[in-house]
Every structure is written in structure tokens, then in C-alpha cells.
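Anyone able to model this chain together with magnesium ion?
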Amino acid sequence: SLPRNEGQRVQCYSETLEEQQRHRLKVQNALRGATKRGEMSLVFQPKLSLKTLRITGAEALLRWKHPEMGHLSPGLFIPLAEASGDILAIGEWVLEQSLLQAVTWQQRPWVSDDFHIAVNVAARQLARPHFAQKLLKRMAEHQVPHRLISIEVTESGLMQDMANARHQLAQLKEAGISVAIDDFGTGHSSLAYLKTLPISTLKIDRAFVMDLEDSDTDRELARTITQLAHAVNCDVVAEGIETAAQAAYLRSIGCEIAQGYFYSRPLPADDFAHWCAHWAPDASSPSTPTTP
Ligand code: C2E
Ligand code: MG
Ligand code: MG
Ligand code: MG
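re: yes, here you go
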């Protein structure tokens, strides 16, 4: 199922398989060169400390507005771009834009010592020779302090070529760039890798967060994932928090970082900066955000 986001195209269930197939092909063709034509942009979603509600960073998320098809969901086009290989060029663009944004924001008063922009990196990007080395080179060129950038990779992204992943992640860690496992628990995971890969964060997928209020099982799963993360010295980010009750529960089980519509939707860069500048958490009731 597609995540429903800000005004994005919602899959229409009456579409026939053939229509879906045709649409996919059209999207796949339109992907090539979309960044060069200026159709792509990044939005930024705040990450906050569940304990203090301080801003600890942002996740950079890709948006695509095609001149005819309109807004297309990353849930649709990212897998197509991964399949076609276009994700390599797109991913380069995402990294470049994220570095430029980090440079622009680095002196802002709301950029704390631990603030970082988290960039999603696809399996095929990580699999490229010298991924880490090239990223570090580019950061040096733009004079981006390493701590301002982190990356998110999925479990499948790590499993495809574990030896290479270990090699790339070790270089990033050495340079002070932290790595999160995205959508944790939704892929074909092997817990063994947690022990051996240099990872600093696990992101609990929205699938485990959305029904926390109604499901004993999901509460138990979220708690277990958090304990597992702590057992391997990782911090925990919960994504897709939409209610105060979800935030309160996640805080009570020791989850460190929160992300979700409850705090803010992903925002264009200027709106994100404005949101951060006006973010005034009520310290007396840390689960209650005050909308700027
Ligand atoms: P993800 O990395 O797990 O990102 C979180 C997704 O959850 C985002 O969807 C975000 O907008 C959405 N989300 C955040 N909070 C909430 C909430 O409270 N409720 C709901 N319903 N959704 C929430 P988005 O932006 O549609 O991206 C979907 C996926 O596409 C991402 O999942 C990521 O896997 C991929 N993606 C997005 N941008 C990039 C990119 O630049 N590169 C790569 N390789 N993948 C990307
Ligand atoms: Mg992510
Ligand atoms: Mg995620
Ligand atoms: Mg997810």
C-alpha cells in the first residue's frame, strides 16, 4: 500500500492491471532526466527528541511533480527508479541537494550540535564502488561538517552485498557519519547483522506505530524492537507518529527520537526553517507539541 502524503496521487483501486502497467511504464520513461528538468525537489521532516522535544534533525524526502501527471508518490517511483537504475542519478542529486542544504542551514540558531540531515540511500547506490569515499570527497568540496549528514538504508539494501555494505558503513562511521536502518522489521532481516554492522540507529517502521493504541501485539513489538536496538547500542527513531498517545507510549518504552505528522509533515526547505525557528515545545508536558 502507498503511504498517503501531502496531496500526492492516491492509487485508484478501480484501475485495471493493464492500466496500472501502462501508468508504470509512463512513469518509468518520465523518470529519466526529471532532476535535470527541475521536476524534483526535497522536503524535510523534523526529528525530535521524545524526552525534550528538541529538534535533532530532519529526514530529506524526495518529491516529484511531473508537468502532466502531477505529484507522484515516492512509494511508486522510487521502486521503479531502483529497477531501471535511474536511482543512481537521482540519488546523486538528492545527496548534492542535501549537502547544499546543510551548508545553508549550518549557522542557524536551531541547528544544535547533534542536528543532522538524514538522506535515504538506495541499495544500488550503496553497492557502487567507493560510495563512502565519494560522499566524503563531495562533503569536503562543499565544506560540510560530517556530523551534519547521516544516511538511512533499508535492511534489503544491506543484505544484497553484506561485505560491501560493511566496508562502506565502516568508512562512514570512521568519518563520523551515522547510519540508520530504515523500515526496521519490515524486510527480510537477519538479526545477526545487527551485531556486526556499524549502525547507530534503528528506525521503527510506521507499520508498528500506526496501531499502537489498539494493538497489544504492536505495543509489545515496538517495545521489543526498542530493547533489541538498545542491546546492540543503537538509538531508536519511531516514524509515522500521528497522535499524542503514540508519542507518549514510545517515550515510555525508551524510544529516543520521534518523527511524524503529529509534529510536522515533510516541508519545503524554507517552510522547514520557519517551522524550526518557531518551534516552542512545552517542556512541562513533553508529549504535547505547540503548533507554530
Ligand atoms: P521512508 O524513508 O520510510 O520515509 C518515511 C515515509 O513516511 C515518508 O513517505 C514520509 O512522508 C512518511 N511519513 C512520515 N510521517 C508520517 C506520518 O505521520 N503518517 C504517515 N502516513 N506517513 C508519514 P514518502 O516521502 O512518501 O517516502 C516514501 C519512501 O520513499 C521513503 O520511506 C523512502 O523509502 C523512499 N524515499 C523517499 N525519498 C527518497 C530518496 O531521496 N531516496 C531514496 N532512495 N528513497 C527515498
Ligand atoms: Mg527513510
Ligand atoms: Mg522509514
Ligand atoms: Mg517507512
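The chain is about 40% helix and 20% strand.
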